[in-house]
Amino acid sequence: MSKQTNDLSPSKLLANYLNAQQSTGPKTEAGKAKSRMNARRHGLTGQFYVMNEADRIAYTAFEKDYLEDLAPVGAVERQLAITLAQNNWRLNRARALESNIEGLCHHEYAADTNADTAETEAAITHAKMWLNHHHAIANLTLYENRIERMLARNEKRLEALQVNRMAAEEIAREEAELLLNQSLMKREPQAPNQTLEVRGFVFSVAKLSAGLDRKTALATARFYKANNWDASKPVPRALTMPQAA
User: Fold this and answer.
1) pTM of the entire structure?
2) Which residue, of 144, 169, 194, is where some domain finishes?
3) Residues 41 and 153 in one domain
4) 148 shares a domain with 104
5) What is the full DSSP assignment across the chain?
6) Which domain holds residue 61?
7) What is the mean pLDDT of each run of 10 residues along the chain (245 residues)?
8) Residues 111, 79 share a domain
């Protein structure tokens, strides 16, 4: 079975895109018009988005990096993270649009703008852009402000969800460590791939053991640091963890 497009890395997608440029593409005007913009189904939301191929590749890489940074867990966090990625993309696009309007004005007013220097011509173009397109620029600013408010609201929602989830997970982890310590104390056999489920969270016994070993090592190091690294002093029993048989 061939690999799905959504599973390909951004670099591979870009390579495919560049290779596709060698194709002659549609021959008729109708075919060319139809292929200029293509609807793509989002891999996580299932929604259709219309983008050209270069923008789709750029957005796919942008969203992937954004979701990796936010590290959402579960459907609600993932949906909020996708919304944040999309709104940041829209904000970047809005800012680019202002530059595009300026570029359009340079093109439109080039024939009627004759000045002694390029700087003066640019200043004249800026002035004409504001005089002739200030309503569009003002609307664009409102659009950006609306997106920024949505971003701030959703960032707070996601942060609250993640803080609550991580706090609950930490409580569950501490209980799982206690249960594992009890098993080790009783010298009960531990399978390498064994897991413990506590409060709806599933923990790997191997990772729990590694975490306990690290806590023991840190507690021991702190004890010796407090005692001027005197190796002759015995580590208190309370600082040590049960060891696997």
Assistant:
1) 0.65
2) 169
3) yes
4) yes
5) -PPPGGGS-HHHHHHHHHHHTTS----SHHHHHHHHSEEEE-TTT--EEEE-HHHHHHHHHHHHHHHHHH---HHHHHHHHHHHHHHHHHHHHHHHHHHHHHHHHHHHHTTT---SSHHHHHHHHHHHHHHHHHHHHHHHHHHHHHHHHHHHHHHHHHHHHHHHHHHHHHHHHHHHHHHHHHHHHTT----TT-EEEETTEEEEHHHHHHHHHHHHHHHHHHHHHHTTT-TTSPPPGGG------
6) 36-169
7) 46 51 55 55 57 85 95 95 94 88 82 79 83 86 94 97 97 94 88 91 94 91 94 85 50
8) yes
